[in-house]
Write a structure and sequence with these properties.
With 197 residues, the chain is α+β, with helices and mostly antiparallel strands. It is built from four helices and eleven strands, in the order αββααβββββββαββ.
Length: 197
Amino acid sequence: MYQYKIKKASWLATLIMMLTLVSQTTYAEHFHYFIDIETTFAVDQNQQLNAINVSWVYDEKMSALMKAQNPNLQALAKKTLADLSKNHYFTNIQLNGKDVKTGQVKQFTIEEITDKGKKLLQLDFTLPLAQAIPMQGKNKITWNFADPSGVAIMVYSKISGVRLEGELKSHCKARMWNNEEAEHGDPEQFLKLKCSL
């Protein structure tokens, strides 16, 4: 009888542990948050592109979670960007079909904003390019943002989120299209900037 109780208790403990693991796995698979993106492109006086200015606004759920984990926003931004650097800041860039390497983010700000009554975190950072890109002539820049884990859903809410400054404003045209075949961890959108300077 005593052995039966031990076996029963052991079986119940195993069952509870398995259910807990399954629920945690299911939660991880279904947990998603959204980042609304804006980017600014500008060339210097030599018509070279040196960096892309990026703005991410996290959704309300993720903003609250991030603040709960670290209420010191400056420290939170540093840790977030350090983690993002391991995955190239979730950014893929190509110039005329060739991959463009990016550098390490050193300039950034983070603040809490209010949008339609919701308190959201906005992370702005300058993503430097490893080498400046001469933009004279005809060029095509394509890019996308994606979290390889598939947890963050990163999208431009509208094409006006692609901001062009200086010479690019009158010499470039931006296009955006959804990735209809996106799978877990794939970019939700693709973007193209065609320029003729």
